[in-house]
Amino acid sequence: MSKGRYVILVLGSWCAAVWPTVSVAEDPALTLAVELAQEGDHHAAAVEFRRLALSDYPEPERGRYFWMAAYEYWRNEEPEPVPNILDRAETFAPDIYNDAMLLRAETALQERKDTEALFYLESVSASREADGMLREYATRRMAAVHLRRKDPAAALESLENGPGDYPAPIAAIDSYMCGKDKKPLVGGLLGIVPGLGYFYAGEWANGLRSIILNGIFIWGMVETAGEDQWGTFTVISFFELTWYTGSIYGGIDASHRYNRRRLDACVEAVEGQAFFAPEYHELPVLTLRFEF
What gap in Å lies between CA 88 and CA 72, rounded to an integer? Predict the structure, then answer.
């Protein structure tokens, strides 16, 4: 797992002379916001960071607090206020533009707005001003979004045009493109013969279970019919009909599961456990930590 971090903004010497940088330990309001965030109360943390952003701090610092508020709202799965807060963050601290774009992308993904997210991610990936780790994160995320949209060619292009080299992710996408998805229709048709639909999708345990259960119920039907036990025969037939239709639908579902597993494995190879977070202990200097 590679790790990276970078400092977005450090106050200049003139600003430091006028407004000395305050550490978390020296600012009770900032300490409260950080503690709430670390305790998992992201909504309350967002409110406290907004309060700090509206206080009498230098504008760049206020911009970073607005970014932190937007981040905490995103963490709390409250995407609605994020865009407006990021607008204010960029107004006070224009040099966090790429970081705001990254958070806009994550918020768009949270709202399932893939096209919008791709626009933001592509902007960050192509930016010459963004740090290398930030660009790599955006590039991998962009490729993963393309994969989720069933467009592996675009995912491959994103990596090939992105910063740095990505031999393992590119190889994973090449392998995915060479492979084939299972066809749910074929899985359903094969499911007419109990177990075959599951076997088609590589679910051998489910296939064997389907054969055994259907075999038991069919045997029960034959035995009860031979002994003229029609009441029992009816009950067993009802359950057999359930298992038999389940074999057909199971073949369809198994094919869908196979395709999802194949796609998930490719996405995992491309973005891994991609993750970013601010270093709270370094606030009000905004430092992002990335993991892949």
Answer: 15
Check: CB of residue 60 under 8 Å from CB of residue 93. yes
Lowest-pLDDT range of 52-56, 58-62, 226-230, 260-264: 226-230
Q: Is residue 180 classed as helix, strand or coil in its secondary structure?
A: coil
pLDDT digits (tens, 9 = 90+) for 186-223: 998 998 998 889 899 999 998 898 888 878 867 877 77
In CATH, what number is assigned to the domain containing residue 9?
1.25.40.10
pTM: 0.79
Say yes or no: 215 and 120 in one domain: no
Residue 127 burial by CB count (10 A; 0-12/13-18/19+): exposed, middle or buried?
A: middle
User: How many whole angstroms separate alpha carbon 55 and alpha carbon 187?
Assistant: 62
Nearest partner of 223 among 211, 208, 210, 240, judged by Cα: 240
Number of domains comprising the chain: 2
Domain that holds residue 33: 3-180+270-291
pLDDT digits (tens, 9 = 90+) for 245-264: 878 888 999 999 999 999 99
Q: Are residues 145 and 286 in the same domain?
A: yes
